[in-house]
Amino acid sequence: MPRVAVVGSGLAGFTAYQTLRRALEPGEIAVFGTEADPAGAWRIRAAAIRQQEMRSESDGHCLPTTFPGLAFGSVRSRRSLRPLLDSVLDRYHPTVDEFLSHVESLRERSGWDESLVARRVERVRAVDGGFELDGDRFQHVLLAPGHPGLNVPEELRGDPRVVHSYEPHDYAPSVTVVGAGLAAATEWLNALAAGAEVVSVRRHEPERRPLNVPRQYFSRRGLESFHRLPPRERVERMRTLTAPSYPKGPQWDEPLERAALEGRFRVEPSLNGTAQVICATGFRRGFRSDALLARLAADHDLTVAETTRRGHAERLAHGAANDGVDVVVAMGGDGTLNEAANGLAGTDTALAPLPGGSTNVFARTIGIARDPLEATGQLLSSLHRHSYRRIGVGCVNGRRFLFHTGLGFDAAVVARVERRNELKRYAGHPLFVASAFVTWFRHYDHSRPHFAIQIGDELVDGCYFAIVSKTSPYTFLGSRPVVVAPEAGLDSRLSVTAFRTLRFAPVMAAVMSALGSGKVLRRHPRLVHHADVGSLTVLGSGPFPYQVDGDHLGDVDRLDFTYEEDALTIVVP
Ligand SMILES: Cc1cc2nc3c(=O)[nH]c(=O)nc-3n(C[C@H](O)[C@H](O)[C@H](O)COP(=O)(O)OP(=O)(O)OC[C@H]3O[C@@H](n4cnc5c(N)ncnc54)[C@H](O)[C@@H]3O)c2cc1C
């Protein structure tokens, strides 16, 4: 039995196969597919929009290397150096025929047909030591089932005038094209060239971007820099790269301008009575649209819920616990995780953090990788090993926290960062540091202390700023932990660090110490540090701001803290 199964015999499965062939023989790979020709599904769609040239540069081929690219092949077949020169300027596009003959020759020499199993896979199940595909076992499985069908807007389904742009079609004398991406732009030009009158119906004005994905994404170095981006930024970048668009240039604009002057092209807000409606609306999206992926998720009883507002994660997690769910995976930042922890505290449902925020303090504290893919691998392995741990949490005025609550100055900084929520996504730590300075110099009242802290019989008065830690570090600056209470941890009670001064020199000394071991910080004469605290009360000399696990919760006069033992189950690496 082969070691690796590839499900899907389209171009993605084919490219994966070429990569696997670097290390494995054809007999060690089984490719499951309904079509022997790897370009079979693609060929029909490309022909439907009358595509002549590829939308990819020299590097857009099916081998796991950038060199030699398709431009080298074109030099031979076109008997000209022009393809190479064009490629240097990023202006080369192989023809569809050149690309298809590249696929064909690779298919012949790579052993593809030998590995092909002409069968549709109905079910993939994880079993000990690998996976089972409809009864056959494999060590590894790669899923490449492709686009899960064509997307036609709900209101147009069943309308006899409708054809999808990726289905073979001719043009009626009057045509409405729905959409504003490359397929739509191609349809406008094709239909005009066929003599039709064209109406464009679109939700947004088309975005104009170069045809090709920037070439950096085809090189190892370019991809490495992409993978180093924080997860949110990566998602944003993918969104930009895949957003519908078509290129600038007279070949796209002039035919439309001419046709508009002749009264043969216009934009309208909604469908009218044209004879033909072409949906240039791409593919359906999401794993639920693919039977195999939907079943795989269902087999693992995975329910996906998206949060849409503050407090939503808490309600969703609480509902999941009431429904007897085993594990809630919280994919998001510390705020989402805190809400989920509040929804699950006191129940047996375990919480698994998956980093999706800008800092992800708690996930990193317990050793979860910053990269979401790596973190998902860790999570699957932890679930497999039943690696659960029951922990205590902090509680402040009824709200639980996992790593810390900040009172006074740092809460004012967090409030300032939250006002720039959009920037937070991109600027991350530099924004925190800049906000700390601005808050320090302009927005925080240094003239008087703001609260006193009662810990047992001791009253610590004259406090300007305090941190109640549940775990350590307090946060991370880049990859550097900021340590305020080194003794704090998953098994410890609360630690309290109170600043009885906000003068620049001692605070800077404390910050420098926190970026190291945190020891100097605890010895400072104007700082008070208590470890292993079960409860405390903070009494304000007026309202003061506070933040819980990085979420600003407003201003209060009093805060009551308790340590809640045995409160929450978490999944640990
Ligand atoms: C019109 C058009 C033009 C494009 N032009 C370019 C271009 O110029 N350059 C470029 O780089 N990209 C281009 N793309 C993008 C490119 O087509 C896609 O990235 C690529 O075709 C996707 O390949 P795929 O294997 O993921 O999917 P598909 O081509 O859809 O293949 C998936 C295959 O898997 C099979 N399958 C699915 N489920 C199962 C199952 N359960 N068991 C067995 N088999 C299964 C399907 O039957 C199908 O044969 C273009 C896309 C379109 C639509």
Task: Draw up the topology in text.
Layout: E1 4-7, H1 11-20, E2 29-33, H2 40-48, H3 70-78, H4 82-88, H5 96-110, H6 112-115, E3 116-118, E4 124-127, E5 130-133, E6 136-138, E7 140-143, E8 162-164, E9 174-178, H7 182-193, E10 197-201, E11 207-208, H8 220-228, H9 231-242, E12 245-246, H10 250-261, E13 265-268, E14 276-279, H11 291-299, H12 312-322, E15 327-332, H13 334-344, E16 350-355, H14 361-365, H15 372-385, E17 388-396, E18 399-401, E19 404-408, H16 409-419, H17 421-443, E20 451-455, E21 458-463, E22 465-469, E23 475-477, E24 480-482, E25 494-499, H18 504-514, H19 519-523, E26 527-533, E27 535-548, E28 551-571
Parallel strand pairs: 1-2, 1-7, 2-3, 8-14, 9-10, 9-14, 10-13, 11-12, 15-16, 16-28
Antiparallel strand pairs: 4-5, 5-6, 17-18, 17-28, 19-22, 19-27, 20-21, 20-27, 22-25, 23-24, 25-26, 27-28
The structure holds flavin-adenine dinucleotide.
Count of discrete domains: 4
Biggest β-sheet description: 12 strands, mixed
CATH topology category name of the largest domain: Tumour Suppressor Smad4
Return the average pLDDT rounded to an integer: 90
Task: State which percent range the strand residues make up.
Answer: 25-35%
CATH architecture of the largest domain: Sandwich
Query: Percentage of helical residues?
Result: 25-40%
Structural class category? alpha/beta
Number of helices: 19
CATH class of the largest domain: Mainly Beta
- Separation of the first and last Cα atoms: 32 Å
**Rough outline:** elongated
